[in-house]
Amino acid sequence: MRLFVALDIAAEVREALIQIAATLKPESNGARWSRPDARHVTLKFLGETGAQNLETIRAALAEVRSPQSVSLRFCGVDFVPDETRPRMMWCRVTGVPNLSGLASALDLALQPLGFKPESRPVVPRVTLARFNSARNLDKLVLAAAPLKSYDFGSAQESEFYLFESMLKPSGSEYKKLATFRFVKDAQ
């Protein structure tokens, strides 16, 4: 099983991303667009993991707590590594002061199970499209330029999810395996 831990996206934000993606899609035939129902904010990628470890992972994740929910602001479209040779287009997620604390808590909970802590800080984002080549992307980069600071909305999250990623010829498909409330007083 290929597993990861992520935050979901609020329905209003998801709809705003769908609308923007629909306007940008005609500008690039070289893009592989992520499915709207598959968009998320990854907190920790676990990778290939034996199914026999699933219950141990669930138990460890159930212990993760935070004193408050995570505030997310979805703001702006950007290209990685940059606009001149993009490999990916994403929506930036900003205003997340306690997101790194949640990611650290996940690392601490999973480290005894053999998952290495992240060596780099979490860069929250929502993947919109991936590119095999930077060819013929000029029109897309130009069309996305006015969206650099576009406000897609915000959300307060008090749950994270354990997902399974299934690689298919049509692209990755994700399945929620478990839901975890991480705020102490969240109902």
SSE blueprint:
Elements: E1 2-7, H1 11-24, E2 31-33, E3 41-48, H2 54-62, E4 70-80, E5 88-94, H3 99-110, E6 125-131, H4 138-144, E7 151-157, E8 159-166, E9 173-181
Antiparallel strand pairs: 1-3, 1-8, 2-6, 4-5, 4-7, 5-6, 8-9
Please tell me about this protein's structure.
The protein is α+β, with helices and mostly antiparallel strands and 187 residues long. It has a single domain (2-181), classed as Cyclic phosphodiesterase (Cyclic Phosphodiesterase, Chain: A, Alpha-Beta Complex), CATH 3.90.1140. The chain is built from four helices and nine strands; from the N terminus they run βαββαββαβαβββ. It has helices at 11-24, 54-62, 99-110, 138-144; strands at residues 2-7, 31-33, 41-48, 70-80, 88-94, 125-131, 151-157, 159-166, 173-181. The strands form two sheets. The chain has a five-stranded antiparallel beta sheet, covered by helices on one side. A four-stranded antiparallel beta sheet has the order 3-1-8-9, covered by helices on one side. Strand 4 (70-80) and strand 5 (88-94) form a beta hairpin. It is globular and about 45 Å long. It starts with a strand and ends in a 6-residue tail after the last strand. The mean pLDDT is 91.
